[in-house]
Each structure stands twice: as structure tokens, then as C-alpha cells.
Amino acid sequence: MTTKTEIHELTDIAIKAAIKAGKEILDVYYNFEFGVEYKSDNSPLTIADKRAHNVIADILNETEIPVLSEEGKSISYDERKTWNLFWLVDPLDGTKEFIKRNDEFTVNIALIEGISPIAGVVYVPVSRELFWGNSSGSFKAITENENEPLKNIQQLPSILIKENFVVAGSKSHMNPETEKYIQSVDTKGKPVVMKSKGSALKICMVAEGVADIYPRLAPTMEWDTAAGHAIAKFAGKEIVQFENNKPLVYNKENLLNPWFVVK
Question: What is the CATH number of the domain that holds 236?
């Protein structure tokens, strides 16, 4: 069992890695005419993914804890299933947001023990917003340098009262299953308002209190959710499977997540 002190030290390392990766991403974002390659699933992959992955791997490898990254996901389940503690990383979550240049992409780093996240970091390079969570709670701050103190630290959730019932998601990607689910939710009489964000930020919206719920009735991978899951969990929220209301679990043989709801 990882001690609280160890988790705090590892969270600090993950924060440093995320900020440094964010710098690599922004160098490409602002200064390059970036090219796009395609993975086997035809999702875009830029040089920024690779540069962020390399920076994160270099830092996390010093902890001697195994790393499972979207950009290095070829590790076999036979090897992974022996891991009790490992890093789960998405070096650039929201590649499509990156290519559209809408600024809503993140660096996601989670620490998984067994099948559950015990720490998570989500960094937004453009806005310099940093979200993190572990057994001491979940927090948000502003930063742009891994060697400087964090600014404007807030414990999450920081927004407790809203006039509307806010659903995190996207109107343009609303499917019938999601519409039906939203209609079934008890909003305590409040009018429903949709708020859209990219990548893991929708999970962070619930952790922060900006949104009340985030139903994701569409495919995601474990590295998409693990860091946000930790932040939501330690902010007193939960991420549960849509079908059975049980928590999402990690390091499955198939790394595809089931549908889930953050609330």
C-alpha cells in the first residue's frame, strides 16, 4: 500500500512532468506548422504528442514505477496484469482540439494502485490551469513553470451553488442515449444548461462544481479518464459505469472504458 507521503511526493513529480510536457506542446502549437499522422484508429497524432510523451516518460521513469501511455500502449496485458502500481498517461488529451486550435487540450497523468486511481494531474497548457487530486483532496491552481510556486490555489469543489443544473458535454455530439439520460435526471426543478469543454476538462468541471453531471455515453480509453477520475473522486464526486453504477476500473485487458457518468 502506497503511503500518503509517497503519494504526495509522486503527485509533485507528476505535476512537474505535466507542466514540462505542456511547454513542449505549446512550442509546437504556437511555432510550428504541425503535420498530422494517423494511428490505426485514424485519430490524429501530432509531433506534440510525441514530444510530450518523451518528456513525461523521462521524468516518470525516474520513479521506477511502470508507465502506460497512450503513445506507448503496446505493452501486453500479460505484463501489465502484474503491476500493482503504475502511471497511466495521456500526453496530449484532445488532439482534435489541438488541431482545431481551440485551446481545450490537456496533459493527463494518473497514478493507479490496483484498479483505482490514487492521484491525478490534469494540466491545461494554454490557460496554465492545473488540476490535481490525491488523498489530501483536489485542487486547482495557475502555473507555467515547474520551478515556481503555484498561484491562486483553490480546493475543489470551489463552486457550490448554481441557478441552473449544468450538464458537461457537447450539443454537437449529443446522441439519443445521452438526451434520454439527461431527461431522466432529477434536476431539483432547475433548468438544464449544457456547457461544453474539450478533453478531460469535462470531468474537471464536475470536480470544480462548474457542472453537476457529465454523462459520457460514447467510447473513451482508460488514459482519457484516469487523471480526471482521481480529481473528481478526491473532490467528493464519483465516476460510475452507466450500466451498473459501479466505479470505473483500470488496467483491464481491454483498455476501452464502458459508458460512464461523472456526478
Answer: 3.40.190.80
Give the list of residues 6+ apart from residue 11 with CB closer than 8 angstroms, or none.
111, 119, 121, 132, 134
Measure the CA–CA gap between 256 and 150, rounded to whole angstroms: 34
Taking 70 as the threshold, does the pLDDT of residue 130 lie above it?
A: yes
Which H or E element spans position 90? strand 85-93
For residue range 191-213, list pLDDT tens digits in order. 999 999 988 999 999 999 999 99
pLDDT band at residue 145, thresholds of 50, 70 and 90? confident
Give me the percent of the chain exceeding a pLDDT of 90: 76
Same-domain check for residues 116 and 173: no
Contact 211, 205 (CB under 8 A): yes
Chosen domain end from 125, 156, 187: 156
Residue partners of 3: CB distance under 8 A and separation at least 6: none
